[in-house]
Amino acid sequence: MYFKSFNPLDGEQLQIMNEHGEIIRDDLMPDISDEDLIEMYKTMLFSRVIDTKTLQYQRQGRMLTYAPNLGQEATQVGTIAATRSTDWMASAFRELGAWLYRGAPLYNILLYWYGNEWGMHMPEDVKILPVSVPIASQLQHAAGLAYASVLKGEDDIAIGYVGDGGTSQGDFHEALNFAAVMNTPNVFIVQNNQYAISTKRSQQTNAATIAQKAIAYGMPGIQVDGNDIFAVYAATEEAVKRARSGGGPSLIECYTYRLGAHTTADDPTKYRDNEEVEQWKKKDPIDRLKKHLIMKNLWTEEKDLEQIENYGQYVKSTFEKVENSGLVPLEDVFDYHYEKRTPELERQYQERKAYNSSIGS
Amino acid sequence: MAILNVIEAITHALDLEMSRDDRVVVFGEDVGFEGGVFRATVGLQEKFGVKRCFDSVLAESAIIGSGIGMAINGLIPVVEIQFSGFMFPGYNQIVTHAARMRNRSRGRFTVPMVIRMPYGGGVRALEHHSESLEVLFSHIPGLKVVIPSTPYDAKGLLLAAIRDPDPVIFLEPKRIYRAFKQEIPDEDYTIPLGKAKVIKEGADLTVVCWGAMVRDVQKAIEPLEKEGHSIELIDLRTIAPWDKDTVIESVKKTGRIAVIHEAAKSYGPAAEIITAVNEGAFLYLEAPPKRITGLDTIVPLPKGEHHYLPDAQYIAQELKSVLTF
User: Fold this and answer.
1) How many helices and strands, by DSSP H and E, does chain A display?
2) What is the ipTM score, two decimals?
């Protein structure tokens, strides 16, 4: 119903809740239990606290390069909340909210950004592919994961995430085209946060919307207000339902804004003005949902502060554990290239091991 | 026993494995209905259905990238890239994902996938159809690179590649696709990856080669042997990880080595093999090791290709210079 009513070619954007947390389209409200909604809000808040703390650690020189998610929490949590835990997720690297909602342990996430591959060793029941640093290539994996589901007679779908910059990559096109032709159960999420490092959305594509690109592949597309969790959830839920019932893939453009830097190695004040950032701050997805929850008597400012404090403590203690995790042993560097070390890898391992013992390390 | 050529042996192996293991799926450009431009997958769609053997969209990155996703989600994709010279759009997926997924996820996700590609020259082809690019894969940690030189090996190596838990690049020397036939056992057999084959033993010179060059080398050493030289001929079979021990042991016995490949000379596989020999058997050497290879040029179109590929006469002359150093 959402995809049909909000045609991206007409420049329509799905919005259900306004910037003040008020529901402006009651008729379009998705059915989310209060319990789930609070869980979604808490995950967004958790994500924000992690970002805030991690940025502090990075500035203190305790953390490596980090990609903050500030401003995109609704896009991430709203999309993943509409899937189920057996569905697959192929993400890029700025999907903290989705990872958390899906059960990726905070320790793992921080460990990864701290420089240890074990961070991406997800628990068995967490079907999240590792961070994909190359841009848009993970959407191809999403297509394959989804095809395999069909072939195995399962009804799990695969959700894939990419940024607006990623839509310029050939792999974006190839993955969507493959998925549409093969009718795979996929949902492709574009987190249009307006910038690919410093390159503006207007320099990324000449198309009026990214969502309209779906039309060319022969799949439904929709642009949603990415800071409105209800709009994000509603569109994703419809797309997931379609995918799961054999209706094929969909593309959802979440129109949002990256409030922070691309990564900590980047200074966004050089390429965008403060006025623009301030305008978007007024649309902050977390403030918006908080106002809504308070209006519905589901949340209070006191609870909010308490939750932020608790999360802060948890992030602090988890990060301390990460800091104490030490360096990886030599075996770790050799053991995961093949199921068994090749003879040459074994030789190189033995040489390095002998050298390490000779210097007492 | 069936009498098959290389391409028929490949079809036979795919058929056998698709029957044995329903996780195996075969796809790529034109591989379904038509059975591939070289007919390697002929009959498979008819037998196993369009879900397990299908024509992919014309997109190398999608073929390899979606294959990676399928492999992670429990299938065993055996994909065909129509010519190895067309693999570059998919090279990103091979290098940045297929080769690294196990490492990146510390073993949580693996990519048991085979990427088949016809490669090499000598078939009077268009541009981008004749290169030998084995070194571009062999340099990448996490990949295995296999090249058969006979129908028997094609079957045994392909079955081993499909059953391997890691991504395997299976390069098929198209010059010998239909060049000769061999008796092949009907039953299941595998040839271990990473093991070279000593085609014939000898005492004076170790010659290492693979793929289509094996037959040229066999032709080249005939007159030399008639002259009384004793040559040990090794078919490497797997380029990565390659069988260093067999080659070094051989050089310790013969004191001489020549490596022959179609790929361009500089930074080519021969450089790696000879360096390993220098590291492992330097004091046994009685002559400088020799590389007999393609040129550091773009492979010429058919009217100039004879300058590029080392033929039997040229190989014989170069081997003679090592033998008589």
Assistant:
1) 15, 8
2) 0.94
